């Protein structure tokens, strides 16, 4: 049996740089993403691990202007409601943030979880059925890294009403919205995340997030 591929220190350094550069992009150029590059990223995403080998991710490419407008309308309503949750300076800071690239991004991808999938035969999710959705998140992250390695940016829009979005997409009722992704070439490049750069939230130190028992 082969021991598998070997990854040297140079590769590990480049992998670390890729992870660090996996920015949530909100500012896109409008020029198109090559179809071959997008398909390569999606194919790599479909190699992601999943509970029971269930592969529950469903990528929906949203090209219809009417469907995109419905998603943008949902964002506008939800964003207004979210802004109202904050007061004073924090509310003003929220309103200054750019939280989506829905108008500029050339590619929109809705990523959904097929919660009625028979693939995997239920293995590994009898006590934790949410593992299906977690599996979809692994595919999203794989797609994100694959895109970044090709110079393509990804932005995850979560300020949406899931029911409205699913209705706009006309997908099966057993599919659950996990992510709505804007995909395209970034208009800017920065070393720091946007929310750090604009003073919303600093990154926490790893020591604050890793616990031993």
TrEMBL record:
* Residues covered by the Nitroreductase domain: 19-185
Matching Gene3D superfamilies: NADH Oxidase
Top-level lineage group: Bacteria
PANTHER family of this UniProt entry? NAD(P)H NITROREDUCTASE RV3131-RELATED, NADPH NITROREDUCTASE
What name has this protein been given in UniProt?
Answer: 5,6-dimethylbenzimidazole synthase
Which species does this protein come from?
Answer: Methylobacterium crusticola
């Amino acid at each position: 049996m082969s021991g598998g591929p070997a990854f040297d220190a140079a590769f590990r350094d480049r992998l670390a740089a890729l992870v660090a550069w996996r920015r949530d992009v909100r500012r896109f150029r409008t020029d198109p993403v090559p179809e071959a590059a997008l398909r390569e990223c999606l194919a790599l995403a479909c190699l992601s691990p999943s509970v029971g080998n269930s592969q529950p991710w469903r990528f929906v490419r949203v090209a219809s202007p009417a469907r995109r407008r419905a998603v943008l309308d949902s964002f506008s309503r939800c964003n207004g409601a979210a802004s109202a949750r904050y007061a004073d300076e924090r509310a003003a800071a929220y309103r200054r943030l750019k939280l989506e690239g829905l108008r500029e991004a050339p590619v929109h991808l809705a990523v959904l979880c097929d919660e009625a999938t028979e693939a995997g035969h239920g293995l590994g999710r009898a006590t934790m059925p949410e593992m299906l959705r977690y599996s979809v998140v692994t595919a999203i992250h794989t797609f994100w890294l694959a895109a970044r390695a090709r110079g393509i940016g990804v932005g995850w829009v979560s300020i949406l009403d899931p029911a409205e979005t699913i209705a706009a997409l006309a997908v099966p009722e057993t599919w659950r919205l996990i992510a709505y992704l804007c995909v395209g070439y970034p208009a800017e490049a920065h070393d720091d995340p946007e929310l750090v750069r604009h003073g919303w939230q600093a990154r926490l130190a790893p020591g604050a997030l890793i616990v031993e028992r």
